[in-house]
Design brief:
Length: 377
């Protein structure tokens, strides 16, 4: 039986946690031959190499080294550089994960060449088209041949958009596979704080953690300033650890807001590796974020999460998990925060199939599908 060649694409930080368990499940598979393509959308040590090291992802077979740019530049550059790889490798399928620019770019190249597209984390919808990832999600799903979902509602979204039901498979969440595999190796928050020479308050009691990077939150002076001022108020009640995404750091500097970070109740950290982030999350009293992944990871850990966005595409984290959507309104953020301090917040429960075995399900279905010429028995 000849092996089916699959180009597996990653580009940006949130992709790495998703591909890791899929690469493990495909390693030594009798029917599948994975080839790992990194587009180079993220390239810094902290945003990229550290994750490969933490998660034991194999060295990419191909690196397209596209780097940063506008959406059009970045997407176009990935497409231009990915096309010759598809021509050379002649894969049986291209597998993409998540919703970043690299996801849509590679899916589009493959589908124009009649190479089947497999999308992991399909069907999530925020219904907010101002969010660049929402465009990437809708378009990637429309041109995908096999779609794997993390929650049942995602399947309903896809059916509503006219995707054939036999292409959609509810398999669970590969990012939670990664969390399960690495929880025991998480770096304790206390160690992170000690190494960062954090004020004593961080070492001796409860703390909150914060991440911010969505353009809608950090690219507008008023919104970013108001969020940072709100965080300063929260810092008076509980110390806040804040790993800074490069986009956010650069906006804070260019808007002249750096003085708001000079506060002993805030601990500004560089972007963290996966095992550090997991430790920071696991030991936190609560997490404030605009990240998609953190909403899911805190739900899996049962840590209360306050999401600083008007909506979420990851509905199950609100319906079943520990997540509360509050947007950027100061009053709402502080209310949700006080509720968590006084009542402990939403306990939530673990969503269906977030059990650490999603990648195995994906790989089994994918192998069957490819052996059957694009159908499942
Ligand atoms: C991208 C994804 C977003 C994801 C996020 C996680 C898209 C549309 N967005 O957003 O969904 O949540 O990654 O981080 O694909 N930069 C560095 N070093 C790096 C990478 C980026 O300094 O290794 C800086 C560059 O100045 C760049 C900026 O960060 O312009 C933003 O990077 P980019 O990949 O364009 O978007 P993200 O905001 O990271």
């Amino acid at each position: 039986m000849s092996k089916k060649k699959i180009l597996c694409v990653v580009g940006a930080r949130p992709n790495f946690m998703k591909i890791a368990p899929i690469m493990v499940a495909m390693k030594d598979h009798q029917a599948l031959q994975p080839i790992l393509v990194h587009t180079g959308q993220h390239y810094d040590n902290a945003m990229n190499h550290q994750f490969f090291a933490d998660l034991g992802i194999p060295e990419p077979d191909v690196n397209l080294e596209v780097g940063s740019g506008t959406h059009a530049e970045q997407t176009a550059e990935v497409m231009k550089r990915f096309e010759p790889v598809v021509d050379r490798e002649q894969p049986h399928a291209v597998l993409v994960v998540g919703d970043v620019n690299s996801t849509i770019a590679c899916a589009l190249v493959a589908s124009k060449k009649n190479v089947p597209v497999i999308h992991v984390e399909a069907g999530l919808r925020s219904f907010d088209r101002a969010m660049p990832e929402e465009i990437n999600r809708i378009l990637t799903d429309q041109i995908s041949d096999l779609l794997f979902t993390t929650e049942r509602l995602a399947g309903e979204n896809l059916l509503r958009e006219g995707i054939r039901g036999d292409r959609i498979h509810f398999v669970g969440n590969v990012m939670i596979d990664t969390l399960h595999h690495n929880l025991a190796r998480a770096i304790p928050a206390k160690r992170i704080f000690e190494e960062a020479h954090a004020p004593q308050r961080f070492l001796s009691g409860a703390y909150a953690a914060l991440t911010l990077h969505r353009p809608s939150n950090v690219d507008h002076l008023e919104t970013l300033q108001s969020l940072l001022e709100t965080i300063t108020m929260i810092g008076e009640r509980i110390p806040v650890a804040f790993p800074l995404h490069p986009r956010t750091r650069s906006r804070i500097e260019s808007f002249g807001l750096s003085a708001l970070l000079e506060n002993s109740n805030l601990l500004i950290l560089p972007p963290l590796g996966y095992l550090q982030m997991l430790g920071l999350m696991k030991d936190a009293k609560l997490f404030l974020t605009d990240s998609g992944g953190v909403q899911e990871e805190t739900t899996a850990l049962g840590i209360p999460c306050i999401t600083l966005r008007e909506n979420t595409e990851r509905t199950i984290t609100v319906d079943a998990g520990s997540n509360t959507i509050v947007g950027t309104d100061r009053k709402k953020i502080l209310e949700a925060f006080e509720d968590i301090l006084s009542s402990g917040g939403k306990a939530g429960k673990i969503p269906e199939y977030w059990d650490g075995h999603a990648a195995e399900r994906i790989v089994d279905l994918m192998a069957q599908w490819l052996q059957n010429g694009g159908r499942l028995a």
